Amino acid sequence: MKTKLTALIILTITAVSVMAYPHFESAMATAYTGNQLSDPLADPLAADLVMHQQSKIEVVFVLDTTSSMSGMIEAAKEKIWSIASTMASAQNAPEIKMGMVAFRDRGDSYVTKVLDLSSDLDSMYASLMDYRAEGGGDGPESVNQAIYDAVHKISWSQDKQTYRVVFLLGDAPPHMDYPDDVPYTQSLKIAQQKGIKFNAIQAGQSTNTTHQWKQIASLGGGLYFQVEQGGSAIAISTPYDQQMAELSSKLDETKLYFGNPEEQKRQQSKLAASSKLRENSSPQAQARRVTFNTSASGEKNFLGEGELVAAVVRGDVSLESIAIDKLPESLKLLKPAAQMAVIEEYDERRKKLKQDILELSEKRADYLKKEVAKLGGSKGSLDDNIYQAVRSQAAEKGLVYKDKSASY
């Protein structure tokens, strides 16, 4: 009798699975192949699949750092956080990793510098702050080497559902006369095989650059844009920036870390990067950073690895299971009850700060929308160009952006 019952149950489950599979397969196609780009979530099952699977974005900026690009470099320093927030505004809060390839030319202080992909945007931004526009001045630059490094020296994931994208920003064409260079045409073939989109944003109006940039975008399966030499980024101060910068600093103070010596070393490096941001970046940049950090996508950057408060509150780890030598110094001499009281107090303070920041973020966003409208809109700006590229290309990976404009 038990054998017959078991067989009947298995038969029923198999039948249901077979009947459901075509709908599941159709839902996956709708969600991920781009067959219905106008509304990727039209199918209820597709919507459920998309909303419950966190998408991933890997974006690398290939940035000309020669003297003529000083305006664009400063714009990048100011806008990285709003670009991250724009990408984070997709419906299923994608995980975001960023990297960078800075380039100049042979004979300059460096040809390329590669910052690999990481969800630790604080550390990436801290490195970006050190870049200065120098060198160049002789026309073509080492664009071929920069594109090669972006394809071959970045730790791109193998996940087919990850949106992998490069934004090339520069104002000079590539050297095509270096005999030992790998032409960008070859590198872009490899990029296509890896599923990496290449977008080309030209600063200035050099006709020599325009031809090459358009070809790079075409071969890279991406888009070509032209902006003013300084980047044409939307950079507007708001009455809320300073207060948000102050709240951002207080929010950073709610972090406690635990781990072994190697983990603690990495944590200290992240804390040093965060400190550098607070001391050296503008209130506007700090407001953009905290807007991103309090989003679902920004939590990983905010917390980093081994953040004790979140780990204990979420139940990822029990306080009792952590060895004394792995605890932060401020907790080592306290009794367990007192340690827990500190963690709970930090958590409550964090919740209150996040709520205050959210309210200010909404006011800031409303203010910016009105100011941008007064300027005649954002069309043609660095912000809008990047957003429109992301919005159209990421749809192929199931990422849905409802907003018509970028975050500022």
What does this structure look like?
- With 408 residues, the protein is of the alpha/beta class.
- The protein has 15 helices and six strands.
- The protein has a six-stranded mixed β-sheet with strand order 3-2-1-4-5-6, sandwiched between helices.
- The protein is globular.
- Residues 1-51 have low confidence and may be disordered.
Structural class by secondary-structure content:
alpha/beta
Q: Report the sheet with the most strands, covering strand number, pairing sense and barrel closure.
A: 6 strands, mixed
Low-confidence stretches: 1-51
CATH fold-level topology of the largest domain = Rossmann fold
Helix share bin: 40-55%
Order of adjacent strands in the largest pleated sheet = 3-2-1-4-5-6
Number of strands: 6
Query: How many domain regions?
Result: 2
Shape: globular
Gyration radius (Cα, Å) is 24 Å
| CATH superfamily annotation of the largest domain | von Willebrand factor, type A domain
Q: First CA to last CA: what distance?
A: 68 Å
What's the number of helices?
15
CATH class annotation of the largest domain: Alpha Beta
Q: State mean pLDDT (0 to 100 scale).
A: 86
H/E element string? HHEHEEHHEHEHEHHHHHHHH
DSSP strand content: 5-15%
**Proper CATH architecture of the largest domain:** 3-Layer(aba) Sandwich
